[in-house]
Amino acid sequence: MASRDGGRVAALSHQLAQAHQELRRQISDIRKSLGRRRLSDDVLLTHCLSFCAALTSHHQGEDDGMFSRLLRERPDLAATVANLVEDHAMISSILSRVKELADRAAGSTDAALEAIGRELDGLAAIMESHFTYEERTISEALDATATVPDWAGMVFRFDVT
Q: Do 85 and 67 contact (CB within 8 A), yes or no?
């Protein structure tokens, strides 16, 4: 779906859904790897920390750019945005816990990796609820945006290796 100015290849809501799908895939891969221990502990922890950074960057882009822009155009979304920002704070807290566990797990026991796995299981459930709510509640407002804004890179594109 092209924008009114022709500068957008896909609707912003579609790009947001794609970014969320990529984050879902990444956490699923990490959780599976933790369960199977297919990779070395150090590689798993590196992937885990990279994922945490990508999710944090995505949410900061939303908080610092997308949401403020949406609120200027659609003040009726204030309660929705407040709920999403609250979710971001909760997710950030879980990510801090995952990072802390990952730092301690380097060269540690299976129990340390299991603790990370439990945190990631909870995080995945919260992410799914959050992403579904966000996509459902703000898609129309995103698609009404005339141009691809400056915050799009942080929200839609990230690279986790």
A: yes
Q: How far apart are CA 155 and CA 28, in angstroms?
A: 20
Which amino acid is located at 150 in the chain?
D
| Amino acid (1-letter code) at residue 101 | L
pTM of the model: 0.82
Instruction: Give CA–CA dist 79/84, Å, rounded.
Output: 9
143-159 confidence digits (pLDDT tens): 876 565 677 776 777 65
Which class in CATH covers the domain with range 12-150? mainly alpha
Helix H, strand E, coil C: the string for 53-111 is HHHHHHHHHHHHHHHHHHHHHCHHHHHHHHHHHHHHHHHHHHHHHHHHHHHHHCCCCHH
Q: Could you state, in order of their start, the residue ranges of all structural domains in the chain?
A: 12-150
